[in-house]
Amino acid sequence: MMIHLTAKDYVRQPWKNGRGTTVELLHLRDPASGATLLRLSRASVVEDGPFSLFPGIERNLTVLSGPGFRLTGPGLNLRCDPLVPVAFPGDVQVMASETQGRQSDDFNVMTARHLPRPRVIVAQNDRFDGEGRLALYVLGRCRVDGAAAAQDDLILTAGPVSLTGDGPVIVVSYSGV
After folding, report:
1. Are 139 and 168 in contact (CB under 8 A)?
2. Residue 129 and residue 46: Cα distance in Å, rounded?
3. How far apart are CA 97 and CA 107, in angstroms?
4. Most Cβ neighbours (<10 Å): which of 27, 112, 137, 150?
5. Residue 137: which domain range?
6. For 145-168, what is each residue's pLDDT tens digit?
7. Counting Cβ atoms within 10 Å, is residue 38 exposed (0-12), middle (13-18) or buried (19+)?
8. Contact at 8 Å (CB) between 105 and 82?
9. Do 159 and 134 form a contact (C-beta atoms < 8 A)?
């Protein structure tokens, strides 16, 4: 079964730290506790400053546009460059720096720490035979198993799946949700 989400399905909300907004593409919660299991979102980093804390959450961030930036914190020094996924713990205080006063848009994957960590890659014209579920965030026109998808669409499915077309896709392979 394939679920195709578009911009009309997404929710805009303020950041926990109050310094910006995020566009929530998907948020799966534990039915009993309401705790986050998986959250996919988009946001913009527009200035140097702190990231919000998310205790018990593992994070993965992929810069989509702009110059990128650096994330630093205790035991952490990551360069966030366009289309290169980086992973870091959500409960470590990190700071964005080297923004150069320019906006960088990014795609975020957050998963509960007790779940298997998702695999996040950027792909184009590829086939995925893996187990588990896939979330495909489309960065340019493409086809998913022959079905048309436009930029900023989110396709939820399970493998195998075939990607063809002009644009790259962020592929999130996850399980346990």
Report:
1. yes
2. 37
3. 18
4. 137
5. 119-174
6. 999 999 999 999 987 899 999 889
7. buried
8. no
9. yes
